Amino acid sequence: VTLPQILTVWAFWKAKGATRKEVKLALSRIPGVYVPEFYTPVYERGVLRAFETSHGVPFPVHRQWANLEDFETRTFIYTPFAHFRNTALVELNRGCRYRCRFCAGSCIYAPFRQRSLELVLSMIRKVLEWQPEKVGFVGSDVLGYPAFPEVVHFLRSSGKKLTLSSLVGKDLYGRSDLLELLRRGGLETITLAPETGDVSFRLFLGKGLSNDDWLELILECLRVGFARVKLYFMLGKPDAASIEADLEFLARLVRLAPSPSRFWVSYSFLVPKPHTFLEDCKAESFGRWKKEKEIFERGLRKMRIAFSGESPRRAWVELILARGDRVLARYLPELLEGERFLSLPSWRRILSALGRDEYEWPRLPWKEGLKPWSVVRLWALGNGEGRSHEGLCEPEHRTGAGNHCCRL
């Protein structure tokens, strides 16, 4: 929607010999285009109070939605040196039917939009010309594609294998037919994301299913013939008992399964992202993250479950970036040039020099006032897709499933 307009306007004004600022001003008139130069953040004692605009630019900038039928999203350059080797990718849909509170993808790409079966099959035919070993379907909610069985059958008829990212457990529970379809499609490892063994917090996140349901689903995956089940877990949750619940859940799974070698656990830390339902949640401390990592990995080793995980240092840099503003952004070129972008000590020195507590500021920097990303509105008012943050992270907030909260 926007990029073709940007290129057209840019080419038009450049051909007229317009200055750089004149081109920027022309671009700022395109709906959905944000030109930072025309928005000046106003701080008061570290609190972002307002954005002063110039040249009549809109505030906030409203995101735009593309018609997915107008273009293809698939692999256009096929090479064995790509990250997904010998695999061609095809996008089925964007957005997600679910609203997991931590997920940036479902918020950024909402509303949930589907491509037509005709377009999807056309894209598959084009990528098959390269003779890839596998075809990967891209989307936050691929099982939500109405013609998913037809697409898998079409791929099977071509003799190519299917590959997918993490799948929604609620869509697979009680659906042995769908699991068998995925297995016949050539999927060897299935990836699921229970996130935690703490049922009430899982429901708070929006993931769904009880522990018994998850165990039944995972064991059914083994029964239908998947070689391995990969499980995503989240550390840094706002409940000290959650990590023990995670290990207890996995211990039950190991007792019921043929062998712990049939599982692979991958973990990451809860980093509240802008524009999500948890953007106002206070992250746990860095020390807590490190301790949880040690406890979790020790438990996995005892159960002989293979695992991979995120470095707490790298995740903390991600947290700083997720909640950063222009003041911090000014230091990015310096960090990139010195190859210190992922250096936590470098980021801490910068925060300290700015008068921001290097340990506490990243946890919840914008307690009042605006947020740096308030300049962009992802959700159109009145379209039925709006979100409410009110009360979500207040101390008294409780879910119907339990007494979990994201504490301020």
UniProtKB/TrEMBL annotation:
Gene Ontology molecular function, alphabetical:
catalytic activity; iron-sulfur cluster binding
Which SMART domains does the annotation name? Elp3
Which InterPro entries has this protein been placed in? Elp3/MiaA/NifB-like_rSAM, rSAM, rSAM_horseshoe, rSAM_sf
The record's section on Pfam families has: Radical_SAM
Transmembrane parts of this sequence: none
Lineage of this protein's species? Answer: Bacteria, Pseudomonadati, Atribacterota, Atribacteria, Atribacterales
The name on file for this protein is Radical SAM protein
Query: Which species is listed as the source?
Result: Candidatus Caldatribacterium californiense
Domain (Radical SAM core) spans: 82-310
State the PROSITE patterns in the record. Answer: RADICAL_SAM (PS51918)
